[in-house]
Design brief:
Length: 81
Amino acid sequence: MFDIKFVITKVSAVNFFATKNRNHYNFLIENCIKGVSHAVVFETSNTVDLSEIGLMQRILKNCNFEDGVLPVHGRHSFELE
């Protein structure tokens, strides 16, 4: 038996948009919304344009709480608090 207290979703900037038409994955947004996920770890890389990263962060902050989106660069360790 498990007692799940927190759900954290990890999103990679490289995989954010499904097509060149800038349609994001529906399940990506569904798994990041308030009530489903308590926080979102947003992994960025050097291969994605900074303006695109800003757009992705705004979309994630609209889905979840603004302080619930944690941007990290690459594989980065962090405290869950």
